[in-house]
Amino acid sequence: MVSLQRAFSVPAASALTVALLASGQGAASAAGPGSQPHGLTVVPGGIPALSPATAVSIERVALPLKPQTYRFSSRYGARCIPVIGGSTYHLGQDLGAANNDPIYAVANGVVTRTSNGTANSSGYIVVKHVLGGKTFHTVYVHMWKATTHVAAGSVVKAGQQIGLVGNSGPSTGPHLHFEVWEGAWYTGKSLDATAWLKARGVDLAGNASRIYPDLRPTSCSYYAASTLNLRSAPTASSQVLSTLAVNTAMRGIPGEISNGYVRVTANGFTGWVLHSGVSPYKVAGKPSPPPQQEAGSPDEDVVPSGQVGSGTTTVAGTYSANSGVNIRSQASTGSAVLKVLPKGAKATVSADLNGWYKVSYAGTVGWVYSSYLTRVASAPTTPAPTTPAPTSPAKAATHRTTVNLNLRSGAGGTHAVIRVLPKGTAVAALSAQGTWSKVASGTTAGWVASEFLQKIAAPAPAKPPVTKPVTQPAAPKPPVATPAPKPAPKPVAKPVVTLQTSVALNLRAGMGTTFKVLKVLPKNTKVTQVAVKGTWTQVKHGTSTGWVSTRYVAKAPTTAKPVTKALKAAKFRTTTKVNVRKGPDHAQSIVKILQKGAAVTVNASNGSWRRVVVGSTVGWVPATQLTAATTASAAKPAAATASKTRTTTARVNLRTGASTAYRAVVVLPANAKVTSKATKGLWVQVTYGSKTGWVHGAYLK
């Protein structure tokens, strides 16, 4: 789990567990992290109570997420950078949770700032609190939309929902990162959020469903995400010790970052490289552009592949803004904003510097990152008649496009599209850079993704004619039987590998957290493996193909497919409102919705599903949502059976009677051994320890 450095880390909040903090003179003397504040007596359960001599007002402090719904993972402090853009000094606590889980304010306060997230930048909410006479700020990050429940200026209470867990920005999976600052946010003092809550009676780790081990390596393995300048000091003006090619191996130490630069050793030198150019894994092609962030981001110091140092290349033309974007004074997200270029506005581009375009708009000249601009085709004009200059012949075609393909101005998906080459277009390959090829189509040259090119077989050279001497014809030879052609070998089908997600997981357009999220795959979703590269796996789900983090998928367990078995028709009633589906699976379409108590006829089974007939409708419902169609007063007596040891297949209620309408005596754990004594419809009477009751037969094996 990962958060952006400093300004973009995620706090998590839950409403259920609260603590009381006495404010006023007794509480004003601050306690150190982990110590007990003055004026508080901690009672069992971790909820502080007021001691008799304390002050005048009471303040609630709450968990940021519901207890037992989150995982306690990456901790506060130094660490290795987990993804491109991730921090090496973690300023908060990560809490892995399900997508759209509710986030709660940890204390009374006022929302001072909100920002929506994208695939490139993290969404966040900042809340200001005054506790014990001191000002604190809590920060909640990685939600997609920060204004679902609050806006800047909203007054919130401890335990009030303020947002939803998301996975925006540099993040490997849905989670909430929780930060605490004493004094001002970002410029104040960063605190260990877990210790801060613990000092106020709220145990963040103790309420987690799982606590991951705290692994703190002494060194980190990194790779250059693009061609980088290794500098003698953490500034853009310091001496360049070496230029590092893409995927150059680097070694660093957890937490060593200054002024937006990370200290590394590479090529025999120890120096500083730009934080945004450091990757924990090898990269393919050009990385995605940096996000539009707040002032304070480091200056751009990434050198385009094939160049040393910085320089400009001309990409003159008229461009349109894809969205509202800042025009900055320099080619850097850390420079001043001169003006906002509105969505759809046209600007004139005159130069390109490390992926930034120099633009002129409404009298303002500045810099905009290229991915936010699209070239506008110029209107055709009638040229004055001129004498055409002699041109060199076009290069012979060497490849064909295998799909409709964008021809771009540079080697990367962030460069402007010059034109679209239809499938089957013949092009001449000129050069290659990583996974991109420079090609010529007619008089136009540009860059395309190499994987969508197919080489054209070169024609065999024509042989010169040979003059044969005239001779007398020989006697004809008897015809030779032509042997029957051998059958072509049958292609060997590659085995299909089915994987299953272990968490709710983003399916992205490329190998990295900066790529667009195509969809969110729920936990336990089955996908088909297409390819594996580094720490990323390409998978197919339905009609979508994309990339997921390899650590969150594994081979799906193989289970025997249930067989449909005919049953003697019997009358049942639904125990709740239930969907009747076309087949015995939750993925099947709904053919009818039955209300609680609806009468049905069961005539077949398939695993834990039953086929039902309702009027003219035939479909499938889960067996757990049915009960024999008898009332408690008219119920048939249970049929005694020989005692038999059986095992529960999941956590299940042991009830006082053969229906979900009866009270639960105890919850039986999964894999519990029970002794069956009698049956009544689909229910089985069992003994577990000293308890005897009824469980549904679908939960026994």
TrEMBL record:
Pfam families: Peptidase_M23 (PF01551), SH3_3 (PF08239), SH3_4 (PF06347). The keyword Signal applies. Keywords: Signal. The keyword RNA-binding does not apply. CDD domains: M23_peptidase (cd12797). Residues 283-315, 461-492 are annotated as: Disordered. Residues 475-492 have a biased composition (Pro residues). This is SH3 domain-containing protein. Residues 1-30 form the signal peptide. It comes from the Bacteria. It comes from Arthrobacter halodurans. Coiled coil: none annotated. Residues 314-377, 492-557, 641-701 form the SH3b domain.
